[in-house]
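Can anyone check this?
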Amino acid sequence: QVQLVESGGGLVQAGGSLRLSCAASGRTFSSSAMGWFRQAPGKEREFVAVISGSGGTTYYADSVKGRFTISRDNAKNTVYLQMNNLQPEDTAVYYCRAIVPGRVYWGQGTQVTVSS
């Protein structure tokens, strides 16, 4: 059974940092793009960042560019999201996503709360 399990969320003050992890099991995603999305209360889920299978290409939402960094360790089948200078508007449930031909996998999400 394929699973994506996020961890690393929590409560942090504005200006603080968190590092999210997404550990995949059940299959390898080393050739698949993996991304992070987030959903704030009352809002639609939105794109945050994506990384190519090799890790050589990354894209970010304008709202997080310069503050967040996505990376991956294919030996550990894990993708990370380093979040610096967090702001209250970053408060959301953060989800990991992996895409393979014909299938999209989502994790269960991890809550990030930023207090002002």
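Reply from J.R.: I decoded it. The chain has a mean pLDDT of 96.
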